[in-house]
Each structure stands twice: as structure tokens, then as C-alpha cells.
Q: What sequence folds into this?
């Protein structure tokens, strides 16, 4: 399933594509994600404006990858729970890129669970990034961060598996990474970008 709006905003509600990929693009607007389920397909959401996850587990895929990109806005969640993943894939990767931050609509984090799939976070402008990996399973996750913006950057993991830090580049702001279990560093952490 693929949908592109060249102007205006998109609200995606109760979309289930079974094993097919799902692509939604708002070329000059915002996207609200209410309930997307691809079973095993990949999810690709792109917008120039803010992308908002409006319910708990707004996007789920059994083994597909989740890629969400807001080129001029933020990725936010307004979901009520801080113990349920806003984005869930059972082994696929999660890649989030935003210009003005990735977070809860308040002061808390956007909740994710990849069940061991790699996580990539990217910020291009000014805004807080706060992402919480909420699964307490022994998920071994690799984290990569690319930041050319400003503001604090925080990744908090409840996983009891090893968190492996891949390439990390931080712009202007503080970097906080935590994990319940071991944190392994396998690449350079550059805080002078």
C-alpha cells in the first residue's frame, strides 16, 4: 500500500496490509498515525511536518522494518501509556529521523521495541531527542546515532540484553545512553560534530 499527498495533512487510521509494505508520504504536511499493522511488511512514513503517533502501538509489524522521517518537523507520541511500545517490530530495524526532535509530546520518551533489531536515530535540527526502549527482554540491540542539530539526546533502555553502540555522532547538546545490562562500544563516539 502506498499513499502520497502532495499538499495537506494525512491521518492514517486502522490500516492493515498483512504481509505487504506500507508507504505513506506527506510531501508538504503532517502525518497522524493511529493504527498501522503490516504483519510482516516494511513501514515507511515520510513527511515535511510533524509525525504524531496518537495511540499505544501506533505502528506494528511482525518482522518488517520501521522507517519514519520528518524532514522539517518532529516525531511525537501522544499515546497514554509509557509502558507500551509506540513502535513495535519483532526483529526488524527501527530508524527514526527528524529535524526538531523525537519524543513524547510532554517530557517523556517515545517508546519503542524492536525485539533485538537495530535502532538508528538521526536529528537534523534543534530539538530534544528522548527515546525509551521499553522491553525488559534480553534483546541484544545495536544503536547508531547521527546528529547534526542541537539539544539533548537521550536513549534509555530497559533491555536485559547487551546494548552495542555503533557509530555515534553528536551535535550540540548532552548525550545520555543507559541500559539495564551491558553497554558495549564498538565504534567511535564523536561529540564534536
A:
Amino acid at each position: 500500500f502506498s499513499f502520497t499527498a502532495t499538499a495537506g495533512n494525512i491521518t492514517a487510521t486502522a490500516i492493515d496490509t498483512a504481509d505487504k509494505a506500507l508507504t505513506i508520504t506527506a510531501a508538504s504536511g503532517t502525518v497522524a498515525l493511529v493504527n498501522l499493522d503490516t504483519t510482516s511488511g516494511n513501514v515507511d512514513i515520510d513527511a515535511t511536518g510533524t509525525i504524531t503517533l496518537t495511540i499505544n502501538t501506533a505502528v506494528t509489524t511482525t518482522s518488517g522494518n520501521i522507517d519514519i522521517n520528518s524532514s522539517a518537523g518532529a516525531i511525537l507520541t501522544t499515546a497514554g501509556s509509557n509502558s507500551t511500545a509506540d513502535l513495535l517490530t519483532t526483529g526488524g530495524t527501527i530508524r527514526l529521523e527528524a529535524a526538531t526532535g523525537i519524543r513524547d509530546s510532554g517530557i517523556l520518551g517515545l517508546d519503542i521495541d524492536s525485539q533485538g533489531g537495530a535502532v538508528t536515530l538521526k536529528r537534523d535540527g534543534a530539538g530534544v531527542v528522548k527515546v525509551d526502549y521499553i522491553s525488559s527482554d534480553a534483546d541484544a540491540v545495536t544503536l547508531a546515532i547521527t546528529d547534526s542539530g542541537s539539544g539533548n539526546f537521550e536513549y534509555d533502555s530497559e533491555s536485559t540484553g547487551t546494548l552495542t553502540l555503533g557509530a555515534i555522532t553528536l551535535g550540540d547538546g548532552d548525550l545520555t545512553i543507559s541500559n539495564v545490562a551491558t553497554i558495549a562500544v564498538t565504534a567511535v563516539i564523536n561529540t564534536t560534530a
